[in-house]
């Protein structure tokens, strides 16, 4: 639609600009969309049975596809380290890092392999046994040829569903929960003994009374140690802090055996440490200022070897303390958490005991950590600081030596003084010296910097040729074959600030690593395979064979290149191996193109084509033309750089003809040829020019070559969207004319030199820019009306007003004549059978008025001028001002008007849809005060009323009162805007006219009339407030009732109005202004509010501080004679302020019985659902 009354400021300066822009942009957009449509269809991977797309292509089978639908996530080459990764099921990185740590613990791995599953003893099924599923997983980690394996069997034995796999959990919690479940199910077996012997330690939880020297303690087993981080630099500092007792004295003292409060020391004391020590660092804490969880990034040093013997035993009883070296440990695993306190990612740095190398286990990726990075996190912080200090000193010495060699005497970092010749003058020549008076040149790395490393060829990177640099950038990260040479590798992350769990292995007294650990991971490590059950080894072997076959097929599939080869607007799909030649692509493409339904000329060209006269090029699907040629046909697809799903194009030439030189970055212009004698324009023809830097001369020469004429006789005209037609001069850049891909250029063949005469094209544009053809219909011919649906089909009680005759106005359609069937109809209507209206055209001048157009149409139709209405589109706003020109109404080609029978409206008159509010918002609940039903359910359509925009709102209310027979008087009416979604809009003020209340008022807009509780007169400073009444005795809330108040209304006046409304004495009215969250929990919040109004004075205005009321705000009043009923237990309830995340779920491993019971219930529910569905007709 258009704004028929708001375009007075647009004058004749816009004439031609719209038409010129439409002519240029429409053609460019049309061509671009056409090309994009064909390109998308051509490159869509569609099946042959559904190949009817929007483009011209047709799917043709080239080669038989490989069996099996493989995707890249299914296969991964095994890491060069020899280790197998674990697939992340969703958010199971915590589980993967923990499982890899267990697998890299040799003694645990050996016990898992040696454990025998006995269903009679364990009373559990194989798929529900955690130890059995862990054994199967370890066997695959040991023997599998795949790059990664899944933990799906293990998580199913936990009783987890797919949903549980997408919940982030804590790795330390996983450690405790999983080991607790395993201990109960493996008790009495070798694995159960290993868990209790290797993973458990003991400590005393004691309370010592220094005054009496007495102590009471309790022996407690532990599996992991929770260490504090704050103010600790090394792990030994963490142990010192962990064992430091807390002192309770005075009123906080602890009662002894006699019941007396005494000073006491409460703490922990290690009895023995486990062989495999798991230390958990307390990186997660609570910030009590904001009551949120935070993560601590304090750095802690983890020595590769640490002696914890000093922390075992009681210092007061030396006989309990072991000797030095009894508890000496080697670091072998670091479980690292990257992220925040609310989420992140786990991975592990683990040392292989057999070779001493460290590896990064990051889900499915396993990589070796560089030795330099290992040295970084194993190096003591003091040693690292000293090393960095020495390196910095060496660097500074090198810089100073370089500066001295260059003759620079100023200190580093201080700007040099101006040259001796003064600013802006050349410096005097340097003094002569033995070296010829020329100072040595700066080093390649720049002034004051060490030189960069030199390449192996002897040529530095800075001296490489442009071609070599281009090649380096192009092949960056690739090998000589253009393939990726380096697999994924996680960037090194220093564990000092991110390690969450630290794992240590205890040494024997001899100083070497634990004997059983060394045996398990050393030369006898191959014996582990013999420990694996033979049936399990055979199952993994078969899996490896199947994997190799599928992996080989997938690799072959990855090496197949599928291309779309275009010729004459059609394409065929060719699939060949990357080692096949371009010649084979051409042969296969020609063969398939001959099979398509092509013209005889195309078949003839393809049949006579010789390989030396065929060139294959890249195809630009968006621009729909050929791009870069691929070169010799003998080269392979891989060498030619052809990629998967890349579009190619066949190009043919005749014998002896030269290939057209390809220039990159060209654009295609649409050439329109104008014949002045016939006054006719033909085309378009395609012309290629450089996208950047091309000038008019080049375009003129290209057009002359196409027409085979003298370039001096070709006149070119481009359409500038801002200034209109413009002659293209030889020296004008095409960029300056804003020409782009698909733009139209008009050309004319002159009798003489184009520069000596004015092109006839300009005269044509000047003549035609005001002329357009206006299409119109006969108002006496009826258009097909929609068939209404019975009201009972949609519900007669909805209160939604009926649509206008003919339905809801549709969006503008091409030509403005009736919309297509099914468009522009109300939801409850269906279209009648389609019927076309007869339309005619009349030529008209944009500079003429609407009244003149009405007279012309009346003469053509032989009707009185005041017998029909005019609209731009059907159901659009009526065109009323006969003195406005068509240009002011934004008429532009293609143009049409819709004519309806009836008396036309005058300027300033509008047809408005009047709705009424049926009253209150629904039934109220006295105890809660909530309302039922949507507000829109209470709005009813009254009728359409014709009103003049100059009427005051009082006059408008009087007109509404005539139509609303049982409605209120005008003093009790409030008029507001009703939005399209049936929600209330702006208030219409009584001190303004209808048109000033709603600038840009249009026909068929909706207004709603509300019945007010008290008489009111609204002005520009009126605000609408939602008024509630609070009942302290019953804790009930009435309302809201929308009432109008002036911003200048004082508190005493507000109390008088509310007292009049509620029949209360003004002196007893208590008011307050609640927040939205207080309204939500009013039973808790309202009794605690400031009903005494300490911050308000009787003379305070509601539009000023502290209230600053705006429309939509709420106020609450009550009878001050009734006291509040405050329930203390209710005031402590959470009010819901702030954000509360969903509660976290703890890790839970179900027992076999619980899993079977859950599965049984699910199966019964599914069967019941199937029976219920089958019983339905």
Description:
The protein has 1177 residues and is of the alpha+beta class. 26% of the residues lie in helices and 22% in strands. The strands form twelve sheets. Strands 5, 10, 13, 14, 15, 16, 17 and 18 form an eight-stranded mixed β-sheet that branches. Strands 20-19-23-21-22 form a five-stranded mixed β-sheet. It has a five-stranded mixed β-sheet with strand order 25-24-28-26-27, with helices on both faces. The longest helix has 26 residues, at 17-42. The protein is extended and about 125 Å long. Mean pLDDT is 78; it is low at 1-24, 42-68, 412-485, 519-523, 786-836, 920-935 and 1127-1141.
Q: Helicity level, as a percent range? A: 25-40%
Low-confidence stretches: 1-24, 42-68, 412-485, 519-523, 786-836, 920-935, 1127-1141
Shape: extended
End-to-end distance, in Å? 49 Å
The number of distinct β-strands equals: 44
Return the structural class.
alpha+beta
The total of helices stands at 29
Largest sheet: 8 strands, mixed
Rg (CA only): 44 Å
- Taken as a percent bin, the fraction of beta residues is 15-25%
- Return the average pLDDT rounded to an integer: 78
């Amino acid at each position: 639609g258009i704004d028929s009354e708001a375009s007075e400021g647009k004058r004749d300066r816009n004439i031609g600009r719209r038409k010129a822009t439409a002519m240029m942009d429409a053609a460019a957009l049309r061509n671009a969309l056409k090309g994009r449509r064909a390109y998308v269809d051509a490159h869509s991977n569609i099946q042959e049975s559904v190949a009817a797309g929007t483009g011209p292509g047709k799917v043709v089978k080239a080669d038989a596809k490989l069996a099996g639908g493989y995707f890249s996530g299914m296969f991964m080459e095994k890491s060069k380290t020899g280790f197998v990764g674990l697939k992340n099921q969703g958010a199971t990185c915590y589980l993967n890092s923990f499982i890899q740590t267990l697998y890299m613990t040799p003694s645990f791995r050996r016990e898992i392999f040696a454990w025998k599953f006995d269903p009679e003893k364990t009373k559990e099924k194989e798929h529900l046994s955690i130890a059995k599923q862990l054994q199967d997983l370890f066997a695959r980690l040991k023997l599998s040829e795949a790059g990664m394996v899944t933990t799906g069997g293990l998580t199913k034995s936990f009783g987890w569903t797919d949903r549980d796999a997408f919940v982030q959990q804590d790795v330390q919690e996983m450690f405790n929960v999983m080991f607790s479940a395993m201990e109960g199910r493996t008790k009495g077996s070798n694995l159960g003994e290993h868990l209790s012997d290797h993973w458990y330690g003991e400590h005393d939880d004691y309370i010592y009374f220094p005054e009496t020297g007495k102590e009471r303690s309790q022996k407690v087993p532990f599996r992991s140690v929770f260490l504090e981080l704050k103010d600790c630099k090394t792990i030994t500092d963490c142990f010192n802090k962990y064992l430091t007792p807390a002192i309770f004295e005075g009123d906080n003292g602890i009662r002894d055996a006699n019941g007396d409060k005494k000073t006491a020391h409460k703490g922990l004391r290690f009895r023995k440490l486990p062989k495999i020590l798991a230390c958990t660092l307390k990186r997660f804490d609570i910030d009590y200022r904001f009551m949120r969880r935070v993560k601590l990034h304090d750095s802690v040093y983890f020595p590769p070897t640490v002696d914890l013997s000093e922390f075992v035993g009681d210092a007061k009883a030396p006989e309990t303390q072991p000797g030095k070296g009894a508890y000496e440990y080697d670091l072998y695993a670091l479980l690292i958490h990257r992220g925040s306190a609310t989420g992140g990612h786990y991975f592990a740095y683990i040392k292989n005991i057999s070779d001493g190398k460290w590896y990064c286990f990051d889900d499915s990726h396993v990589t070796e950590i560089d030795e330099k990075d290992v040295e970084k996190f194993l190096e003591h912080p003091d040693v690292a600081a000293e090393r960095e200090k020495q390196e910095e000193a060496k660097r500074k010495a090198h810089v100073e030596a370089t500066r001295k060699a260059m003759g620079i005497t100023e200190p580093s970092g201080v700007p040099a003084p101006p040259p001796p010749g003064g600013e802006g003058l050349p410096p005097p020549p340097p003094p002569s010296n033995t070296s010829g008076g020329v100072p040595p040149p700066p080093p390649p790395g720049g002034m004051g910097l060490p030189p960069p490393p030199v390449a192996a060829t002897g040529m530095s990177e800075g001296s490489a040729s442009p071609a070599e640099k281009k090649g380096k950038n192009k092949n960056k990260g690739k090998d000589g074959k253009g393939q990726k040479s380096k697999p994924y590798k996680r960037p090194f992350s220093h564990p000092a600030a991110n390690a969450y769990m630290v794992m240590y292995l205890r040494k024997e007294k001899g100083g070497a690593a634990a004997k059983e650990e060394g045996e398990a991971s050393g030369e006898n490590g191959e014996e582990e395979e013999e420990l694996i059950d033979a049936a399990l080894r055979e199952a993994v072997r078969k899996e490896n064979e199947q994997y190799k076959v599928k992996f080989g097929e997938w690799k072959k599939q990855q090496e197949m290149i599928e291309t779309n080869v275009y010729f004459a607007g059609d394409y065929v799909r060719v699939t060949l191996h990357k080692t096949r030649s371009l010649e084979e692509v051409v042969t296969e493409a020609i063969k398939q193109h001959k099979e398509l339904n092509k013209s005889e000329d195309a078949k003839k060209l393809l049949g006579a084509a010789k390989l030396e006269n065929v060139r294959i090029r890249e195809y630009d699907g968006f621009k729909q033309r050929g791009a870069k040629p691929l070169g010799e046909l003998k080269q392979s697809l891989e060498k030619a750089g052809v990629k998967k799903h890349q579009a190619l194009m066949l190009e043919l030439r005749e014998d002896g003809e030269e290939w057209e030189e390809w220039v990159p970055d060209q654009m295609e212009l649409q050439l329109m040829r104008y014949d002045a004698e016939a006054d006719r324009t033909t085309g378009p023809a395609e012309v290629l020019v450089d996208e950047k830097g091309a000038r008019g001369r080049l375009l003129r020469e290209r057009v002359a070559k196409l027409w085979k004429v003298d370039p001096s006789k070709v006149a070119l005209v481009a359409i500038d969207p801002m200034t209109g037609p413009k002659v293209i001069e030889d020296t004008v850049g095409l960029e300056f004319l804003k020409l782009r891909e698909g733009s139209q250029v008009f050309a004319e063949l002159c009798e003489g030199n184009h520069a000596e005469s004015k092109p006839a094209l300009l005269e044509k544009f000047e003549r035609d820019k005001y002329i357009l053809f206006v299409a119109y219909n006969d108002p006496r011919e009826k258009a097909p009306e929609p068939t209404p649906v019975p009201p009972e089909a949609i519900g007669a009680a909805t209160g939604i007003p009926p649509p206008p005759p003919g339905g809801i106005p549709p969006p503008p359609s091409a030509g403005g004549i009736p919309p297509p069937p099914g468009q522009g109809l109300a939801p409850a209507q269906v279209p009648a059978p389609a019927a076309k209206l007869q339309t005619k055209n009349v030529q008209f001048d944009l500079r003429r008025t609407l009244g003149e157009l009405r007279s012309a149409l009346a003469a053509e139709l032989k009707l009185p001028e005041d017998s029909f209405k005019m609209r731009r589109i059907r159901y659009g706003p009526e065109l009323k001002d006969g003195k406005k020109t068509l240009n002011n109404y934004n008429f532009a080609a293609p143009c049409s008007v819709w004519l309806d029978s009836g008396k036309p409206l005058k300027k300033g008159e509008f047809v408005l849809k009047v709705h009424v509010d049926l009253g209150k918002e629904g039934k109220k609940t006295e105890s809660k005060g909530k309302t039922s039903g949507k507000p829109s359910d209470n709005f009813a359509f009254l009728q359409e009323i014709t009103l003049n925009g100059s009427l005051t709102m009082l006059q408008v209310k009087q007109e509404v009162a005539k139509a609303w027979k049982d409605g209120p008087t005008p003093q009790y009416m409030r008029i507001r805007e009703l939005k399209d979604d049936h929600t209330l809009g702006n208030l219409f003020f009584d001190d303004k006219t209808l048109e000033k209340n709603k600038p840009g008022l249009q026909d068929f807009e909706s207004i709603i009339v509300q019945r007010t509780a008290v008489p009111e007169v609204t002005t520009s400073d009126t605000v609408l407030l939602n008024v509630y009444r609070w009942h302290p005795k019953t804790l009930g809330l009435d309302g809201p009732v929308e009432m109008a108040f002036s911003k200048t209304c004082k508190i005493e006046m507000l109390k008088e109005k509310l007292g009049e409304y509620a029949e209360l004495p003004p002196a007893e009215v208590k008011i307050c202004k609640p927040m939205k969250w207080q309204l939500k929990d009013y039973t808790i919040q309202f009794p605690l509010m400031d009903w005494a109004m300490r911050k308000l004075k009787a003379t305070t205005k509601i539009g000023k501080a502290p209230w600053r009321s705006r429309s939509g705000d709420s106020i609450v009043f009550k009878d001050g004679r009734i006291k509040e009923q405050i329930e203390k237990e209710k005031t402590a309830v959470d009010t819901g302020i702030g954000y509360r995340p969903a509660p976290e779920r703890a890790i839970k491993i179900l027992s076999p019985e619980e899993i079977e019971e859950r599965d049984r219930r699910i199966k019964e529910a599914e069967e019941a659902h199937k029976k219920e569905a089958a019983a339905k007709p």
